[in-house]
Amino acid sequence: MNIHEFQGKALFRECGVPVVEGIHCTSVEQALAAYDDLGSKVVAVKSQIHAGGRGKGNLYDADSGNLVMEGGVKIALSREDVKTYASNILGRVLVTKQTGPDGKTVSNLYIESGCDIAHEYYLALLIDREAKTVLIMASTEGGMDIEEVAASTPELIHKVRVDANVGLLGFQRRDLGMALGLSGTALKSFMQTIGALYNFFVDNDCSMVEINPLVRSADDKIIALDAKIGFDDNADFRHKFREGLRDRSEEEDIEVRAKQAGLSYVKLDGDIGCLVNGAGLAMATMDVIKLYGGEPANFLDVGGGADEEQVMTAFSIILEDPNVKGILVNIFGGIMRCDIIARGVISATQALGLKVPLVVRLAGTNVDEGKRLLADSSLDIHPADSLGDGARLIVEMIGGET
Amino acid sequence: MSIWVREDARLLVQGITGKQGMFHAGKMVEYGTNIVGGCTPGKGGQSVTLEGREFPVWDSMNEAIKATDADASVIYVPPPFAAEAIMEAADAFDALKGDGVVVCITEGIPTLDMVKAVTYVENRPGVRLIGPNCPGIITPGDGGGCKIGIMPGHIHAKGRIGIVSKSGTLTYEAVAQTMSIGEGQSTCVGIGGDPVNGTGFIDCLSAFEDDAQTVAIVMIGEIGGTAEEDAAAWAEQNVTKPIVGFVAGATAPPGKRMGHAGAIISGGKGTAAEKIAAFEAAGIHVAQDPSEIGAVLLDALKNAGLRS
User: How far apart are CA A115 and CA B108, in angstroms?
Assistant: First the structure.
């Protein structure tokens, strides 16, 4: 899961990562009160959504679709500015490079004291899958799109790989700071900050921490002016506090409900619903639908041990999507038995009064029994022997090209 | 020969007294796997009954390996305790035998736990970790064989195709595809769908290349990371046997996790298109549809003079 910048900065503050003062607001009145409380002439007015590129994003009116303001992060030089920016941001839809064209409605603001910036850096901590280590990436080119920096001037990105069983060592912190051209007070401050950040990353089971920009202030302090934090969901069980930071409005409601039912579901834009066991096979099923001229409506993995009821839930979730014109069920039974899936498919078809074409491909454990149940059901269920056959058939049935 | 596990490998089950452990241990015994006992801390001295036979339980892997001279262990331990179970097994195999195979089935282990566990195992070079979040490894035999994991044993048959895959059910699909053209398997390895795991594609390709029983390889990847690209580049230089490849996730949207913790396109990296291009550049025979793996494999075998 991801959290908002204002939540991340509160966590940073607790862990000794330097940040400037800021206040979370949800109304224009609160924003003005925050401005008064902070007592800083210059403040940053920052839209809070779970996506990057906020500064270069645009705000649109949700009803008219008209452009309201360019830039989701604004520097306010007066109380009047704060009022203008806050009213332009709250309740509006922010579209950035990372949100997709639909954008996200902004319900949270962060008002942050100004900072006298001498230089902007980029800093990220993440898991290096291939090297199986924690990777720290830093660059002097802060405030920019780091992918562009990586493509055009890769020599400006400095990397440190940390042995998680040893921890981040002093020389690694020093080397990285020196690679950024830091010395004296600033280097000392950097070493403290990066040490605190590494501990934060490990102690909280993060999957990613990105700070763009990390800044050197005019008085040589290293400060996190940004906080983009992702947590490893697998570690939720040992970080109960995370639940309190979760912003449900940032998640697809249907995906959350699927997860609660033990299903893994991702909504897509096509019109052929898929119900599959196993993540790899579920992806392959989507790919093959596309290969034969169709468009998948979703990714759905019912897992390895689904029962009749879960199959029923899976069907109802697929059918919530009004775009779905047909469904392809693709099961390779291992632990999961094809006869149980067949019973689930039959009850779901009956209970939900299924009106769209349904193709079912069964293979593996108890396949003959499963096929027999479907054939004997006298329901309009079309069998297929292979994934390819099943995909071609459903694409054809909904009138696509094969 | 097969790779890493012989047909008669002696296996311990970590978490044998749990629901999952006991269920799958039973299935493994039914298949013919030579299970020699299990380990559950606090339940040492007890025994479990599988398929009408009694199997001893020990408190620690150290005791269990001492008593049984096991070659391998399989882990069905819940996520909070799984990484420690891996390290316990690695430590005991290394100290007592100098080698061993540890297969971790558990899904949902925190990534940082795995970063630590994998580093720990790598410091014990005789020990091989397979997984986590995988179906396991199977070496089909002449009757039965060695099934370590959760895959359905009955779909396999002994043969000469090596299979390596990140995905469970897609591996079964590949197995069925080899069977559809009258080929069996030497060994099938599920390396798992987590971002950080033990054995990787290159380890498997290297072992299959050296294995006399294996004549061709099926390699199944999916979006996320660059393991497929790295393996393709390595294979081009080091593998002489034909390889058939499939990559899942061509239609996956960027930034969305597709079921597996590791299956995510992030920062534009890890796309299926890049992986398929790398496969093709390395001379790997790519199947666009998993139902065509059999046909592509048959062509590759014919081209190599291995089938007429």
Answer: 41
> Closest Cα partner for A229 from A203, A252, A196, A207?
A207
Contact B169 A277 (CB under 8 A): yes
pLDDT, averaged across chain A: 94
Q: Which residues of A are catalytic?
A: 122, 210
Taking an 8 Å cut-off on Cβ atoms, the answer to whether B253 and A98 are in contact is: no
Q: Cβ B79–A365 below 8 Å, yes or no?
A: no
Of all residues in chain A, the percent with pLDDT exceeding 90 is: 84
Half-sphere exposure (Cβ direction) of A118: Cα atoms closer than 13 Å: 11
Structure tokens at A163: 């042995």
Tell me what ipTM this predicted complex has: 0.93
Q: How many angstroms separate the CA of residue B148 from the nearest CA in chain A?
A: 14
Q: Is the pLDDT of residue B168 over 60?
A: yes
Query: What are the residue ranges of helices labelled H in A236-337?
Result: 253-260, 279-291, 308-320
Question: In chain A, what residues touch B290 (CB-CB under 8 Å)?
Answer: 281, 284, 288, 387-388
Give the global pTM: 0.94
pLDDT of B268 higher than 80 = no
pLDDT of residue B259: 87
Secondary structure (DSSP) of B96-113: HTS-EEEEE--S---HHH
Angle among Cα A314, B197, B185 to the nearest 5 degrees reads 80
Instruction: Tell me if B135 and A334 make a contact (CB, 8 A cut-off).
Output: yes
pLDDT in tens, A281-290: 999 999 999 9
Question: Does B254 contact chain A (CB < 8 Å)?
Answer: no
What is the helix (H) or strand (E) element at residue A375, kind and residue range? helix A367-376
Of B168, B170, B288, which is closest to A291 when you measure between CB atoms? B288
Instruction: Let me know how long chain A is.
Output: 402
Is B24 in the active site?
no
Residues A299 and A316: their CA atoms lie apart, in Å, by 14
- 10 Å Cβ neighbour count for A116? 10
Q: Per-residue pLDDT tens for A235-277?
A: 999 999 999 999 988 888 899 999 989 899 999 999 999 999 9
Ranking A81-90, A212-221, B58-67, B254-263 by mean pLDDT, the lowest is B254-263
Q: What is the pLDDT of residues B169-213, one digit of tens each?
A: 999 999 999 999 999 999 999 999 999 999 999 999 999 999 999
Closest-CA distance, B288 to chain A, in angstroms, reads 8
CA atoms of A227 and A213, how far apart (whole Å): 9
Rounded distance between C-alpha atoms, residue A27 and residue A317, angstroms: 35
Task: Test B251 with A286 for CB contact under 8 angstroms.
Answer: yes
Report the distance separating Cα A275 and Cα A280, nearest Å: 12
Token output for A355: 């009106």
Q: Are B136 and B130 in contact, with CB atoms under 8 Å apart?
A: yes
What percentage of residues in chain B have a pLDDT greater than 90? 92
What's the Rg (C-alpha) of chain A?
Answer: 26
At residue A242, φ and ψ (nearest 5 deg) are -60, -35
Between CA A3 and CA A9, with CA A7 as vertex, the angle to 5 degrees is 115
A272 close to A294: Cβ distance less than 8 angstroms? yes
Per-residue pLDDT at A402: 47
